[in-house]
Design goal:
6-stranded antiparallel beta sheet; 18 helices; disordered C terminus; binds adenosine-5'-diphosphate
Length: about 675
């Protein structure tokens, strides 16, 4: 059976078809054999019936003769015999002659049938015939009708026929003791005539009939002439007292049709229908098999996908009972599938003191209040460890479109939260470091910057002292106000540094970038003056959402780098340029971007350095920390913008910050004072 199952389906089909063909061939063959057998049987039966009819007729003749033999004393009454003989001849078409014979065989009286029945040569009848004398003796001996064995009579030089005689002993008179004195009636039948006249007409017309002796000697023929290659033959014995004959009937074998009967035809049709059914079934089976394989593959694929998922999946029915959990969910919570399936709230991974919150949330979900954004929650592993999860809920719809429950995808975000916290800390650290590193530089610039107002204050204070000593109070007022102005100038420098150093959390608020740059100018000027560079501003009024303190820091970082890069170039080339413009999207007028660019004509950046520019701790400066640009990029990413570097065609670098804008139009309108682009060129301070 296994071997059979291992066979190729097509081979199996061929095998099946061959079996069917074989079966049909056998059925046809059996049916033909059966038909032939039926024909044979029918012919045999007809032969038996025909021979029976012949026998019956002969028996009747025998009885008639016996009655006649007993009726009269024929030896005396010769005329009576002639009359009786004529009656018999008239009644039986097979009889050609009737005789009255002595017991010794000598002829007493004979009546011939006359034409058209064949006439026997008289000499043949006068001669003592051996067969007749044997039959005569036994008829007289046993006192009953006896037939002679057939004997041949030559009628003409080219033909004759076999005769058979029926001998019936006459009733012996009392006193006549000697058998030799006995007499008998004899009736002569030519065998061909007996067959031709006494066998049924339909039997004669259908078959070629022959009569033979037991040893096969042909005695007579009658009936239709049959031609052909093969024949159906049947035989029946014709047992007569004194002579045993066999009557044979022969017919040509009919060519039998291959679909000879309704039975066979329906069998063949049934077999054909069966083959078609089997083939259809086979096709259906193959289709089912293919579908099954596809389903299995799909199932395996889904299983593999499910097992490889890191997202936990949990399905609940409409009452909140857990109906499915995937391996990731089990791994996440530490509970096995068996521990979770079929469980209803409260769930084992809920946090005990927050069960109310969990229950409220579950009730909301089961009531259909789910959001696409998902929600955060906290679960507790089997080992007691707690972890943050982000859960997304979606309705579970079955194959017939019925809402059967809820599917949740659960993401363990505890690691993400931890990394976020670390990142935040690192960013704050970076911010502080950057600020402090810049503060060092600024302290130098500031001391230089403060020298001037402090020097002026000292001179004005000395002048005040002199004026007081000389009692000149008039100009004292002007000198004191100059002192105040100078100290205010110094205070402004210090305040700008203080403001810069002050640490704040990252926040998002409306920032007017142009104004911010203007406020930052004293600090930028500090940097610019250090290398006797020129500052060019090209600012459009732009408002963005961001954190002003961080943006200040970014801008100062970029300007500081630009100044550093220009230290080594020709003083004429030392121009720091800051551009701020708004770009309106060509597709959507309500969205656009703001671009803040810091350009210098310094030494520029080699292609090799360009790739590492924003990596932390990349620096080409002897005392550089390499955190500035990396900090700038972090800030820009946090604010949803970006920073990019481009080299300038005439030498130098260009750093462009892009900020997304959502409502650019009203900003320009509300701020009329800055609606015109400013082209301000600031030269060296005096
Ligand atoms: P640091 O200034 O401490 O080196 P940064 O991250 O600010 O760190 O800068 C990294 C490096 O990028 C600098 O060392 C310098 O080689 C290069 N760089 C930054 N800005 C410019 C510029 N405008 N022109 C030329 N090189 C620059």
């Amino acid at each position: 059976m296994k071997r059979l199952a291992a066979l190729k389906p097509s081979l199996l089909m061929v095998l099946l078809a061959t079996l069917f063909a074989g079966l049909i061939a056998i059925v046809l063959w059996l049916s033909r054999a059966y038909e032939q057998q039926a024909l044979q049987t029918a012919q045999e039966q007809q032969t038996r019936q025909a021979v029976q009819a012949l026998r019956t007729h002969l028996s009747e003749t025998e009885m008639g003769l016996q009655l006649a033999a007993q009726r009269g004393s024929w030896l005396e009454n010769r005329e009576g015999f002639v009359d009786t003989a004529k009656q018999f001849i008239a009644a039986d078409a097979a009889i050609v002659r009737m005789e009255l014979r002595h017991g010794n065989g000598s002829l007493i009286q004979a009546v011939d049938a006359g034409p058209p029945r064949p006439a026997l040569p008289p000499e043949a009848r006068l001669r003592q015939n051996f067969e007749t004398s044997v039959a005569l003796r036994s008829a007289i001996e046993f006192d009953r009708p006896v037939y002679s064995r057939p004997y041949y009579v030559q009628l003409s030089p080219d033909g004759g026929f076999e005769l058979i005689e029926l001998l019936v002993p006459l009733r012996n008179d009392p006193g006549e003791n000697e058998k030799s004195q006995a007499a008998a009636l004899a009736v002569v039948f030519p065998m061909p005539r007996l067959l031709a006249t006494q066998l049924p007409a339909n039997f004669l017309s259908r078959y070629e009939i022959s009569a033979t002796e037991a040893d096969g000697t042909l005695i007579a023929r009658a009936g239709a002439a049959v031609r052909g290659e093969s024949f159906v033959t049947s035989a029946a014995p014709l047992d007569l007292p004194g002579a045993s004959l066999i009557i044979r009937a022969r017919s040509a074998q009919q060519a039998l049709a291959w679909v000879p009967s309704v039975l066979t035809a329906s069998l063949v049709l049934l077999a054909l229908a069966l083959i078609i059914c089997v083939q259809l079934l086979w096709r259906h089976l193959r289709l089912r098999l293919a579908t099954e394989v596809a389903l299995r593959e799909q199932h395996a694929f889904r299983k593999a996908m499910e097992d490889s998922l890191v997202t936990g999946l949990r399905a609940r029915d409409l009452r909140g009972t857990t109906t499915y959990v995937n391996p990731a969910f089990c791994a996440m919570t530490g509970y096995t599938e068996n521990e979770l399936l079929g469980r209803s709230p409260p769930m084992p991974y809920w946090i005990a003191e927050r069960i109310d919150e969990h229950e409220r949330r579950t009730a909301q979900i089961l009531a259909g209040q789910v959001t696409r954004e998902g929600y955060e929650s906290e679960f507790q592993r089997k080992n007691g460890e707690r972890f943050n999860v982000l859960i997304f809920e979606a309705p579970l719809i079955d194959g017939s479109g019925q809402h059967t429950g809820w599917m949740s995808s659960v993401v363990d975000v505890s690691e993400t939260r931890r990394i976020e916290a670390i990142n935040r800390k690192q960013f704050e650290q970076l911010q502080t470091n950057t600020r402090l590193s810049m503060l060092g530089e600024m302290a130098t610039a500031m001391s230089h910057e403060l020298n001037q107002p402090l020097g002026a204050i000292t001179s004005y204070a000395a002048a005040c002292e002199n004026l007081l000593a000389q009692q000149q109070l008039g100009p004292l007022q002007g000198a004191l106000s100059a002192i105040r102005q100078q100290s205010e100038r110094a205070g402004q420098v210090i305040r700008s540094v203080q403001a810069f150093v002050k640490h704040r959390e990252v926040e998002r608020m409306s920032v007017e970038l142009d104004r911010m740059i203007e406020r930052l100018l004293p600090l930028i000027q500090l940097q610019v003056r250090r290398v006797q560079a020129r500052l060019e501003l090209d600012l459009q009024p732009v408002t963005i959402l961001g954190d002003e303190t961080l943006l200040e820091q970014v801008l100062l970082n970029l300007t500081r780098n630009a100044i550093d890069a220009m230290q080594a170039v020709d003083p004429v080339r030392r121009v720091l340029r800051i551009e701020l413009r708004e770009i309106v999207s060509a597709i959507d007028s309500t969205s656009g971007a703001a671009e803040l660019s810091v350009l210098d004509q310094g030494q520029g950046i080699s292609a090799e350095h360009e790739a590492k520019l924003f990596s932390p701790f990349f620096s080409t400066k002897a005392a550089g920390l390499g955190v500035g640009l990396s900090f700038c990029r972090s800030v820009m990413e946090r604010l949803g913008g970006q920073i990019a570097y481009a080299s300038r065609s005439g030498g130098g670098s260009c750093f462009v910050m892009t900020f997304p804008l959502t409502k650019p139009a009203p900003l320009a309108a509300t701020r009329t004072n800055l609606s015109q682009p400013q082209h301000e060129s600031i030269g060296f301070p005096d």
